[in-house]
Amino acid sequence: MVEKEEVLARLSGILDNSLIKRAEVKEDGTLSIELSREIDDGMLIKLHQELGKIEGIRNIEINLPKAKKEAPGDVQLNREMILEKLKEVIDPEIGVDIVNLGLIYELEIRPDNTVYVKMTMTTPGCPLTMWILRAVEDKVLEIPGVRDAEIELTFDPPWTPDRISEEYKKRLGLL
Predict the structure, then answer these.
(1) Whole-Å CA distances, 87 to 16, 28, 115, 117, 126
(2) Rounded to the nearest 10 degrees, what angle do helices 129-142 and 41-51 cross at?
(3) CA torsion, ordered 134, 144, 165, 121, to nearest 10 deg
(4) Is the peptide bond before 157 cis (omega within 30 degrees of 0)?
(5) What are phi and psi of 80, to 5 degrees?
(6) What 3-state DSSP class applies to 155?
(7) How does strand 59-63 pair with strand 30-35?
(8) Is the full-model pTM beyond 0.70?
(9) Tens-place pLDDT, residues 85-125
(10) For 6-47, how does the pLDDT look when each residue is reduced to its tens digit (9 = 90+)?
(11) What's the CA gap between 7 and 135, in Å, rounded?
(12) Contact 122/159 with Cβ under 8 angstroms?
């Protein structure tokens, strides 16, 4: 099992210690880090890449603080409007949006207007995982009426090209 000290040493080489609110290595090999403030996308990607080099780390969760929003009472959220907004998140390596790639496994609008998204990546080792997760959260939070966003990353079941929409299979020459 990975030692917390090793994780903290690696973190301090990348980030100022005042940014690290909490770091925990769970029994399943998941590294969970909570930061005290936002960091830019470049730093987030670098952090994910460096932490991924630690032997024994299976998954990395980086929790950034976010402002809670009060949902206006007159906005009616629906699944289609959220999926349309998520089509603005393009996987930069493939050039296709995450919805048409089939990366969204589950989408739920909770009674308090929190949007829950369960999604995956095309590969567990995707170097842009943190960037894509953050982009998904940002896009969901841009929708008027959304109070909060909860994004969960899973690799069960693993993504396959079969999940790509029929339209994009044709565009990519997969049909």
Answers:
(1) 35, 32, 16, 13, 19
(2) 140
(3) 10
(4) yes
(5) -65, -40
(6) coil
(7) parallel
(8) no
(9) 999 999 988 889 999 999 999 999 999 999 999 999 999 88
(10) 878 888 888 888 888 888 888 887 888 888 888 877 787 787
(11) 25
(12) yes
Per-residue burial over 15-37, b if 16 or more Cβ lie within 10 Å, else e, is beeebbeebebeeeeebebebee
Mind listing the domains of the chain with CATH numbers? 4-63 (3.30.300), 79-171 (3.30.300.130)
Residue 158 is classified by DSSP as P
| List of E strands, 57-155 | 59-63, 90-91, 96-97, 104-109, 114-119, 148-153
Residues in the chain: 175
Amino acid identity, position 83: L
86 within 8 A of 99, measured Cβ to Cβ? yes
Residues 6+ apart with CB under 8 A from 65: 35, 36, 37, 38
Helix and strand numbers, DSSP H then E, in the chain: 6, 8
